[in-house]
């Protein structure tokens, strides 16, 4: 079962995580409490009349007796205490990447003689029962930092233990804008491809160290920024709590002597309801573009959201779902088995070079690049050059503005009439919930300087002119 502690706040902003045809209400804050996200999901389900189709407990998913011919699946669900059987033409597995909490206790000597309490962050809900205790939080992910800060309000002392450190991000970025709306743009994605890695490292590390020195605060990672992107976490308040002594940084734990311990790191992904068959999933859980098992006789099974985008999960999952439907309906064809396996090996090799070697890294993707890759499969990736000729205002916002899911509703399957307006007004929707005290001379902050816009327009014009002349 999923588990969320009461105070958890999203790490992706509402405009970046919204479904492509259903924006969040503009008065919702940019970073949402978990109850607000749940409210949005209920609104979405109600708006599209989905509730009547939902069953909340899947018992088993097995190949139908004539699967090799029909590609159908036998599904057993439990509803109101009774089991019901269905036959489906296609299956999407959307159970998530982090399903089972895992504590590697064998890595911590003395844990079995430890007299205090130890739990996984999955079990944590609120800080009350930790009143007056000394606590060590093991891990440096988002949950570990959240818990260390929250527990420091009631505990006698909180220690935060990390093997390798992490680069600490702020939700609030330049001009007070949400971090992901500033950084996750097509322009920045292009910059990362053009500039050498050492320059990207230098810029990012200087930017993050400008707020506080990660070395002095005991947080400096063992790897450079690009290589160790896994070791990045959100911790807007962490330096304040370290400098006031309420949270004290510690290296990796060698033995246990404290009162309480909370393990943050460690999840495994499992699909207990799914047929145990090597053609469905091999030992490495290989999936073509992280969606389709390559060796299944019929492409009627898709895994949705079983990856780690450097960005929001809802938009990537939505595009995966659209692609899966197109394949199920026969509108799109997958490559041959050998072609899919070759693509999987190529991506795996690239990830091993690009990131640290860990199971989580094996499913990490760059947000804009992956969105465009899947969008290209179903012809919904926006054509910037064409748009610049016919709708330059929209093209400029697509290039310089946040790469929101609305961009993929301008054309093709799932086209939404409100997509253009949503893109052109998305900055207003970011600012609106902040305007609770209106000033007469208030001006909307601009995330992109005018000089940069001018240069981009000039570059686009130059490229277009070159293409036209050459053509």
Automatic annotation (TrEMBL):
It comes from the Eukaryota. Keywords: Endoplasmic reticulum, FAD, Flavoprotein, Lipid metabolism, Membrane, Methylation, Microsome, Monooxygenase, NADP, Oxidoreductase, Phosphoprotein, Transmembrane, Transmembrane helix. Its cofactor is FAD. This is Flavin-containing monooxygenase. One of its GO terms (cellular component) is endoplasmic reticulum membrane. Acts as a Baeyer-Villiger monooxygenase on a broad range of substrates. Catalyzes the insertion of an oxygen atom into a carbon-carbon bond adjacent to a carbonyl, which converts ketones to esters. Active on diverse carbonyl compounds, whereas soft nucleophiles are mostly non- or poorly reactive. In contrast with other forms of FMO it is non- or poorly active on 'classical' substrates such as drugs, pesticides, and dietary components containing soft nucleophilic heteroatoms. Able to oxidize drug molecules bearing a carbonyl group on an aliphatic chain, such as nabumetone and pentoxifylline. Broad spectrum monooxygenase that catalyzes the oxygenation of a wide variety of nitrogen- and sulfur-containing compounds including xenobiotics. Catalyzes the S-oxygenation of hypotaurine to produce taurine, an organic osmolyte involved in cell volume regulation as well as a variety of cytoprotective and developmental processes. The chain crosses the membrane at residues 450-469. Its EC number is 1.-.-.-. Pfam families: FMO-like. It is an enzyme of class 1 (oxidoreductase). One of its GO terms (biological process) is lipid metabolic process. It catalyses: hypotaurine + NADH + O2 + H(+) = taurine + NAD(+) + H2O; hypotaurine + NADPH + O2 + H(+) = taurine + NADP(+) + H2O; octan-3-one + NADPH + O2 + H(+) = ethyl hexanoate + NADP(+) + H2O; heptan-2-one + NADPH + O2 + H(+) = pentyl acetate + NADP(+) + H2O. Belongs to the FMO family. It is found in: Endoplasmic reticulum membrane; Microsome membrane. It is a single-pass membrane protein.
């Amino acid at each position: 079962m999923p588990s969320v502690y009461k105070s958890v706040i999203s790490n992706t902003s509402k405009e970046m995580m919204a479904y492509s045809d259903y924006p969040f209400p503009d008065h919702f804050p940019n970073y949402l409490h978990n109850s607000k996200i749940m409210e949005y999901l209920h609104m979405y389900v109600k708006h599209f009349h989905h509730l009547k189709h939902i069953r909340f407990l899947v018992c088993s998913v097995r190949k139908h007796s004539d699967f090799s011919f029909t590609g159908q699946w036998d599904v057993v669900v439990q509803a109101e205490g009774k089991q019901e059987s269905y036959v489906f033409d296609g299956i999407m597995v959307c159970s998530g990447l982090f399903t089972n909490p895992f504590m590697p206790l064998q890595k911590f000597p003395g844990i079995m003689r430890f007299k205090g309490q130890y739990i996984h962050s999955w079990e944590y809900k609120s800080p009350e029962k930790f009143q007056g205790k000394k606590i060590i939080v093991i891990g440096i992910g988002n949950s570990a930092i959240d818990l260390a800060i929250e527990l420091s309000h009631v505990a006698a002392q909180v220690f935060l233990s990390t093997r390798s450190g992490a680069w600490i991000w702020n939700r609030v970025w330049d001009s007070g804008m949400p971090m992901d709306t500033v950084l996750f743009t097509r322009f920045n994605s292009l910059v990362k491809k053009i500039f050498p890695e050492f320059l990207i490292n230098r810029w990012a590390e200087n930017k993050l160290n400008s707020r506080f020195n990660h070395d002095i605060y005991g947080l400096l990672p063992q790897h450079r920024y690009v290589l160790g992107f896994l070791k990045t976490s959100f911790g807007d308040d962490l330096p304040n709590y370290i400098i006031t002594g309420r949270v004290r940084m510690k290296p990796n734990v060698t033995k246990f002597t404290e009162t309480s311990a909370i393990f943050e790191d460690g999840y495994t992904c499992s699909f207990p309801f799914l047929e145990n068959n090597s053609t469905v999933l091999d030992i490495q859980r290989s999936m073509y573009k992280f969606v389709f098992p390559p060796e299944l006789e019929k492409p009627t099974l898709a895994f949705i959201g079983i990856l780690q985008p450097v960005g929001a999960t809802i938009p990537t999952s939505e595009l995966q779902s659209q692609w899966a439907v197109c394949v199920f309906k026969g509108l799109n064809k997958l490559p041959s088995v050998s072609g899919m396996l070759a693509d999987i090996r190529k991506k795996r090799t690239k990830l091993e070079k690009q990131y640290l070697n860990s199971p989580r890294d094996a499913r990490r993707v760059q947000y804009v690049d992956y969105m465009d890759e899947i969008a290209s499969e179903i012809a919904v990736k926006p054509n910037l050059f064409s748009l610049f000729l016919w709708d330059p205002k929209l093209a400029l916002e697509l290039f310089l503005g946040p790469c929101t899911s609305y961009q993929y509703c301008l054309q093709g399957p799932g086209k939404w009439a409100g997509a253009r307006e949503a893109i052109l007004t998305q900055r207003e929707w970011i600012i609106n919930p902040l305007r609770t005290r209106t000033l007469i001379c208030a001006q909307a902050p601009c995330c992109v300087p005018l000089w940069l816009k001018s240069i981009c327009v000039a570059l686009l014009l130059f490229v277009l002119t070159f293409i036209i002349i050459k053509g």
